[in-house]
Amino acid sequence: MNRIFGLLTQWGTRLSLDRLRQPDAMQLLEDRGIPAVWRRSIQEALDVIDLLDSRINPLEHELRPLARADPRVQLLDTIPGVGDLLGLTLASEIGDVSRFASARKLIGYAGLSPKINQSGDRSRTGSLSKAGSRTLRWAAVEAAQHAWRESNPWHRLYTDLADRAGKNPAKAAVARKILIAAWHVLSRQQTFKPPQPPAGPTVVSASSRCFLAA
Fold it and tell me: What is the residue range of 54's domain?
């Protein structure tokens, strides 16, 4: 999908995946001046998506009843950005939440804690450690993809940090918030309650903007 949209962007065209699956889509691309070689590349990518969908859909059909029957997933589903399958992934990777003494420990297990580079009496926050469960880290970041929506409770955090540090650090920050929420709902056996938005602008120092886990 990213390859398709990247190709379309080069030619100043934006079309949804549903529109590209219509019978007249290739003719539409031709009318918009996209050369045949790139139209074939887009069609091949669409064929790959269809092939993957045909393999994935039966698995999703099998997993959804398991997710809906799991009380942990029912709690995790109340977190914005988390659905049945992401909730099942989070629950499976976290296991017994009592293994983690705090939400910070869960964040570290997911590899979403930044590296700390120390030299003498100075320390500097670096890139993510990426140590631990790659699947848990992926699920948290995937759930964070919805933070651009204004209805998302972490929308302001996402937009403020994206403006200063870029989209990837912003997604990582929201992913940490999601894991914090997951730890709390599983530990307390309570549904998610959105945090109250701050009264003023979000102020993040250069040294701490990669963490934002509190």
Answer: 2-64
